[in-house]
From TrEMBL:
<dbReference type="Pfam" id="PF13302">
    <property type="entry name" value="Acetyltransf_3"/>
</dbReference>
<feature type="domain" description="N-acetyltransferase">
    <location>
        <begin position="11"/>
        <end position="179"/>
    </location>
</feature>
<dbReference type="InterPro" id="IPR051531">
    <property type="entry name" value="N-acetyltransferase"/>
</dbReference>
<dbReference type="InterPro" id="IPR016181">
    <property type="entry name" value="Acyl_CoA_acyltransferase"/>
</dbReference>
<protein>
    <submittedName>
        <fullName>GNAT family N-acetyltransferase</fullName>
    </submittedName>
</protein>
<dbReference type="InterPro" id="IPR000182">
    <property type="entry name" value="GNAT_dom"/>
</dbReference>
């Protein structure tokens, strides 16, 4: 049974369950949604990420979560926390927030709503001292949201990842610390 980690006005954020891979593959694993995330994944790759996420939640009490739309009960994305695990990153092991929203729910504010809840969770129960977010320079909507949330650009942590196409190869990082996040909250 999934744990409900957070609720927002329109979303329930719940833990990943073993049976979620097929639903994620159907709703979130599309060319448009995955365009800046390395492209569409094979089902076995999604299953492996889910296993890793479930293990992280069991070991450390945080992971990626599914965003369930309250009005419809449908999976509309995922958002949550993990450890920076790219072998090319300059900050391995840092707490990282990430998200994606299915295409038919874009431009409704779901990403911001979910990320705010994930940051509250990260700086609350998880007790992270700071949280980073990674994206490509070309993923303007993502880094604009990072800036809107009060995160600041960390050029010193940027890196190139040849596993991505040239336009997405440069990974840029933003960061926010707990004190800054708490000061920005009403």
């Amino acid at each position: 049974m999934a744990d409900i980690v957070a609720e927002t006005e329109r979303l329930v954020l719940r833990t990943i369950e073993p049976d979620d891979a097929v639903e994620q593959d159907r709703l979130l694993n599309t060319p448009a949604v995955m365009a800046r995330l390395g492209g569409v994944k094979e089902l076995h790759e999604i299953e492996a990420k889910h296993a890793k996420s479930m293990a992280l939640y069991a070991q450390e009490g945080f992971s990626f979560l599914f965003m369930i739309e309250k009005a419809s009960g449908e999976m509309v994305g995922h958002c949550g926390l993990k450890r920076v695990d790219n072998p090319l990153a300059r900050n391995p092991g840092d707490h990282e927030v990430g998200w994606l929203v299915r295409e038919d729910r874009w431009r409704r504010g779901y990403a911001e709503e979910a990320v705010r809840a994930a940051l509250d969770w990260g700086f609350g129960r998880v007790d992270a001292p700071f949280i980073v977010a990674l994206t490509s320079q070309t993923n303007v909507p993502s880094w604009k949201l990072m800036e809107k949330l009060g995160m600041r650009r960390r050029v010193d942590l940027d890196f190139d990842d040849p596993a991505y196409p040239p336009e997405d190869r440069t990974t840029i990082l933003y960061s926010i610390d707990a004190e800054t996040w708490h000061r920005s909250r009403p």
